[in-house]
Design goal:
globular; three-stranded antiparallel β-sheet; Hyccin; about 45% helix; mainly alpha; two-stranded antiparallel ribbon
Length: about 475
């Protein structure tokens, strides 16, 4: 019979694990109500952390033996449907089970993981509903994502280094009231995106596999604050490293040494370090989707500041290299932002109004940090349509011709540069008498293309 050994040397077999799960599922309603408090829930799961790690290791090693794992999966699902702390307990197992499932599928062991597929579909079909597990309502959930405007700091930009004219743009200052209505705090929101509802799934195949698995990881990430951080953070990092490195030989970068420095290898035992750097190049490659990697990266980033820094840094580096190979731009955007943020502020301590674990990265334009003295330079005015005025050269400006008659209604002849020689000839003819004018009538000539030819004909006829 299969057994599992914990880090402290404890040994448990299938029967012992079933007895322990039965004890967990026997919680009364009063106890379940008391454990609804996030701190009480986290403490309860922390107290059962050692047995939880044994259960994870046991399922990862004996997933192919359905006689041993089927009763365990049944009890885990039974507790999940009760909701509350037992739902959080079941979600703790998902990162390890997801990695085990994908590794088995890459080896062609589809029949061996049929129990895992059944559990994934059962949990997924409950997580997409609006109500809690076991609720009779069939209304599906819609995730609302509020994308903040540029005034809210993130790992992608620093509001203090952005022009105030940009921040004052009315398109970026749409205010959205909080959930409490009139009493809620207004948040500057640029866009609101609704994701869902997700379709129900009755079979896992190549089309629905990563949609289901990404949704399961999203549920895990939403509950990270209430879970056993030691167990779930290490499970997320191990899953990321195993899935991204399988079938590849990625060279290890110096990111971990730049961030942790002399603290490397002090947070984990040597045995754990060797487990991280296991050789995955000889194993089959595992296809991954960008949405799945983003959810995995979200959990790994949480682990970075919650007791698993070395594991998380190696996982981030591995995800970055795998995304570079696969050319996933959305995943590379997040990994580059995290890496640059860590290199700017490795400690992750907040500065000014920045959130914990996030350090704003200066732009590549060399924007100085606040308080830095910079030599002021005159700025060129912005080029607009008003700047593009038509300038006429002196030779294009029409020249006023001399007056040829004197009367109450004086008229002027305007002559272009190309017709000045024609005007001179006509004026000479008038002076010598070839063209005569009546004393009671003013004679003026407006020279243009057709006017010049008319004058020539009139002069010829009179001659």
């Amino acid at each position: 019979m299969g057994r599992s050994i914990s880090s402290s040397g404890s040994v448990m077999n299938s029967e012992q694990l079933q007895e322990w799960l039965t004890e967990l599922n026997s919680l009364t309603k009063d106890e379940m109500t008391r454990l609804e408090d996030p701190e009480a829930c986290a403490q309860f799961l922390h107290d059962n952390g050692e047995s939880t790690e044994i259960l994870m290791d046991y399922l990862a090693r004996n997933y192919a033996d359905q006689d041993l794992t089927e009763p365990i999966f049944g009890q885990v699902l039974s507790g999940y449907y009760r909701g509350g702390v037992l739902r959080q307990f079941a979600l703790q197992l998902m990162p390890t089970l997801v990695a085990t499932y994908l590794i088995a599928v890459s080896k062609g062991q589809r029949r061996a993981v049929s129990m895992l597929e059944t559990m994934f579909m059962a949990v997924y079909n409950e997580e997409i509903l609006a109500g809690p597990p076991g609720c009779e309502s069939i209304l599906k959930r819609q995730d609302v994502v509020r994308i903040p405007c540029l005034r809210v700091p993130s790992i992608y930009h620093d509001p203090g280094k952005i022009s105030q004219s940009v921040l004052a743009d009315s398109a970026l200052l749409n205010r959205l009231s909080g959930p409490s209505g009139s009493g809620g705090v207004d948040l500057p929101v640029q866009l609101v995106v609704k994701i869902g509802p997700f379709p129900a799934v009755d079979r896992l195949n190549s089309e629905t596999r990563f949609m289901v698995l990404a949704r399961l990881l999203k549920s895990v990430n939403a509950s990270l604050a209430q879970l056993n951080r030691v167990a779930v953070c290490h499970a997320l990092c191990r899953a990321a490293i195993a899935l991204c490195r399988s079938g590849f030989h990625f060279p290890e970068s110096d990111l971990i040494y730049k961030v942790l420095g002399s603290a490397v290898f002090c947070q984990e035992t040597p045995k754990d370090v060797f487990a991280i750097m296991d050789d995955f190049s000889s194993k089959p490659r595992i296809g991954l989707s960008p949405s799945f990697l983003l959810e995995l990266l979200n959990g790994v980033y949480f682990a970075l500041f919650n007791g698993a820094a070395e594991w998380a840094l190696r996982a981030i580096d591995t995800i970055h290299q795998r995304s570079t190979f696969e050319m996933f731009p959305d995943v590379l955007l997040v990994t580059n932002a995290i890496v640059n943020s860590l290199l700017e502020n490795p400690s992750g301590t907040p500065k000014e109004d920045e959130p914990m674990g996030i350090r704003i990265v200066p732009s590549s334009a060399g924007v100085p940090s606040p308080g830095t003295e910079v030599e002021s330079k005159p700025r060129r005015a912005m080029i607009t349509n008003a700047s593009l005025r038509v300038r006429r050269m002196p030779e294009d400006i029409p020249v006023k011709a001399p007056e040829v008659a004197h009367s109450s209604d004086k008229k002027e002849a305007f002559i272009t540069d190309d017709e000045q020689h024609e005007d001179k000839e006509v004026m000479d003819m008038i002076e010598v008498g070839i063209v005569s004018t009546d004393e009671d009538e003013t004679f003026s000539i407006h020279l243009n293309g057709s006017g010049a030819s008319f004058v020539r004909k009139k002069i010829e006829c009179m001659a």
